[in-house]
Design brief:
alpha/beta, Rossmann fold, 8-stranded mixed beta sheet, 13 strands, 30% helix, binds S-adenosylmethionine, tRNA (guanine) methyltransferase activity, RNA-binding
Length: 345
């Protein structure tokens, strides 16, 4: 598959109160009231035995009926955005192609919200099995009822089609790795920076599997938090006129760096930027192999005098100047460590 890049042109800085209210769930090291009291969180056989009628009692009055690409579902109080439909479409298309070429498809939807993404993987990509997880236990009723209306829990031969759990995504993936339970596709639809999940995701992904990662960190892509982007992605991002593209490269660069540590090579299959959030999504193909050549991993410069952009490799550091003659580094030349993949190269 040829890598391609999809971007919307507008950048929105809006962040709803709903968005902020969920951020606390992101840090696995700080368990909160929702995650701390989870008992035997991965014991699906126990959790899934709860009857649909008792679960439906937990659905709130605010639950809304929605239809996405022909599938009906409810959102309850979960975090759901219509604007994310294209990101879900792309995930389903990639999954569907994967299933056609490999014949099997086991998916982990590590942060499933109301479960629409998982449901679409089951119905539209014909996934053999989907593990839907969300740290928020209160979404359980809505997720299970959405699934039960469309897909049987077990095939006639007794094979599970789906399970629903409520735990920190890193914990789920670490447990799967220990049990040698591997997935063909892992979708991590998180808030903020996603890099804390990269390593555990690689560990429980099959070779040649797909990893669908996310960033909603518009401050970092805009170059407003270089220390933060450095910590999360190893990229010291400065303000650039093409920050939406830089956001995608920053995410890919972080994923490439973490994969290299573990001896994996990743190839971006597609990248998608959307203004809401903003949301940066990248589908990566993960294989084992030699470390990638540095020609795709380096620096992007932007000249504040003439507006020219260039790329530089690590061994060109120290020789950086602009064609216009500007040799002032860094005051006149903004240098962002980020991945050059998909740029002019
Ligand atoms: C962007 S929403 C997911 C939306 C959903 N995938 C969709 O397509 O509609 C992110 C979800 O991640 C969950 N979450 C946040 N931190 C988590 C963590 N560390 N582990 C698992 N789930 C988490 C939140 O409860 C929230 O439902």
């Amino acid at each position: 598959m040829t890598p391609f890049l999809i971007t919307n042109t507008t950048l929105s800085s809006s962040s709803s109160s709903l968005y902020l209210s969920f951020l606390f769930l992101q840090n696995p090291k700080k368990p909160n009231c929702l995650t701390s009291h989870l008992t035997s969180h991965l014991n699906c056989s126990i959790q899934d035995n709860v009857s649909l009628s008792s679960l439906q009692q937990t659905l709130t009055l605010e639950s809304k009926n929605e239809i996405e690409r022909g599938l009906e579902f409810q959102t309850g109080d979960s975090f759901f955005r219509h604007e994310s439909a294209i990101g879900r479409d792309l995930g389903v298309l990639a999954a569907s192609l994967y299933k056609k070429s490999k014949g099997n498809l086991r998916i982990l939807d590590a942060m499933c919200g109301c479960g629409i993404r998982s449901l679409r993987y089951l119905v539209q990509a014909e996934a053999d099995f989907v593990w839907a997880n969300d740290a928020n236990e209160e979404y359980r009723g809505i997720i299970v009822s959405n699934f039960e209306k469309e897909v049987v829990r077990e095939t006639e031969k007794g094979k599970r089609r789906w399970v629903v759990t409520h735990s920190d995504a890193n914990r789920v993936m670490a447990e799967c790795y220990l049990k040698e339970d591997f997935f063909d596709l892992i979708d991590i639809d998180s808030f903020g920076s996603n890099s804390t999940f990269f390593r555990s995701a690689y560990d429980c992904l099959k070779f040649d599997g797909l990893l669908y990662v996310t960033s909603t960190d518009g401050y970092s892509s805009g170059g407003h938090r270089p220390q933060h982007s450095l910590a999360s992605y190893g990229a010291y991002v400065r303000p650039m006129p093409y920050s939406n593209e830089v956001g995608l490269r920053m995410l890919i660069g972080g994923a490439v760096r973490d994969a290299s540590v573990l001896g994996y090579r990743v190839t971006p299959l597609f990248s998608y930027y959307s203004y809401h959030g903003p949301v940066f999504r990248v589908m990566l193909r993960v294989i084992r192999g030699k470390l990638p050549e540095n020609k795709h991993y380096g620096f992007i410069s932007y000249c504040n005098k003439c507006g020219n952009s260039q790329t530089f490799l690590w061994d060109q550091l120290g020789k950086i100047c602009c064609h216009c003659g500007n040799e002032e580094v860094p005051s006149g030349l903004d240098l962002s460590t980020t991945l050059r993949m998909l740029l002019k190269c």
